[in-house]
Every structure is written in C-alpha cells, then in structure tokens.
Design a protein that fits this description.
Radius of gyration: 19 Å
Distance between the termini: 46 Å
Largest sheet: 4 strands, mixed
Strand order of the largest sheet: 2-1-4-3
Number of domains: 2
Strand content: 15-25%
Number of strands: 6
Length: 183
C-alpha cells in the first residue's frame, strides 16, 4: 500500500503515515480526506477514496522544532535531488565555499550537485570556475524534515509542503530555474 501526508488541523505538515493508518484515522472521524490519489478502497460494505493527503479534525500541539539537522538526505530533500548548478540529477553534496577555503559545513554553504559539476568546481570559488547557483542555499523549514525521511514526495503533497527555500508554501520548479545567484 501507499502513504499519505498527515496535516494538522492548521494545515501544517506533521508526518507521512502508511495508507492503513490514514484510512483508520479517516474511518474513526479523526481526520478528513483533503486530496485523493484517484483510486478507491473497497470492503464488503463500503468503499472510500484512497487518501493522498489527510487533515486532523482537532489541532494537535507539536513541541517546538529546532532547525533541521544537516545531513546528506536532508540536503537532497531541500534541493529536490537536483544539481544546484545544472539541474541534472544530484549524486553528491558540494560546499559552495570549499572547506579548504574556510567554508563551513552549514545549510547556507552546502548544495546538492551532480558528479560532473562537483568535479569541475573542485575546491574553487564560484567566480573562479565560472559556475552559478540556480538558487541560494538556506536552512529549510522544520517541516521539511517530516518528508525528508519519507523518501519520494508525492506530487499531491507539493502544495502543503513549505518551499525548499524556507519561505512560504508550495514549490515551483519554474521558479527555481529562474532564481539564480550571481557568481
């Protein structure tokens, strides 16, 4: 079976739950279906749409979330597994200001990159190697960590997730492609 994004009553992403848990929450009237994936679940006496996004009926207080821990998986989730230099599939992480040049291992200095861009940049600054970032790296919204550990992101979830630049909701690949940082 699949998975569903669980939203708080305030539409804040809480976690990704197995489909079975999502169905139980809906059947017990603890959650409502916000988005469907098109299929239906059938039992002997009823059928219901397969939920892709569900929202809790009552607000659940969530303890304060500090910054998302910096990890390879989280960097790939923030950058949508795309190279921040050429937009190809990313396999590596790269320090914008190399650590050998005093760069730190922080959200603002780490991006996902493909193997060829990482090799071309080596331990040089952006201006020295003639490459530009597609988007300036920033620490992601804390709720990104909710889905970073879940693997692939269902397209139905996009409008409910914070953008990977840390501001607002939603994500647009077109907006990412047009936002560049001068070298």
């Amino acid at each position: 079976m699949g998975r569903a994004l669980l939203l708080n009553a305030s539409f804040e992403p809480l976690c990704v739950v197995p489909m079975r848990r999502a169905v139980v929450l809906v059947l017990k009237d603890k959650a409502e279906v916000i988005s469907r994936n098109g299929g239906e679940l059938h039992s002997e006496r009823m059928s219901m749409p397969i939920p892709s996004v569900i929202r809790l009926v009552h607000f659940v207080r969530v303890p304060f979330r500090s910054r998302v821990p910096l990890s390879r998986r989280a960097v790939f989730a923030r950058d949508r597994h795309r190279c921040q230099y050429c937009n190809r599939s990313a396999e590596n992480i790269d320090h914008v200001v190399p650590r050998s040049r005093g760069g730190e291992h922080t959200w603002e200095n780490v991006v996902a990159s493909c193997r060829s861009c990482n090799a071309r940049k080596e331990d040089r600054l952006l201006a020295e190697c003639g490459v530009a970032l597609r988007r300036h790296p920033v620490a992601p919204h804390a709720s990104l960590w909710v889905v970073a550990t879940a693997g692939a992101i269902d397209p139905d979830w996009e409008q409910w997730l914070p953008s990977t630049n840390g501001h607002g909701n939603g994500h647009s690949a077109d907006a990412d492609a047009s936002t560049t940082v001068p070298a």
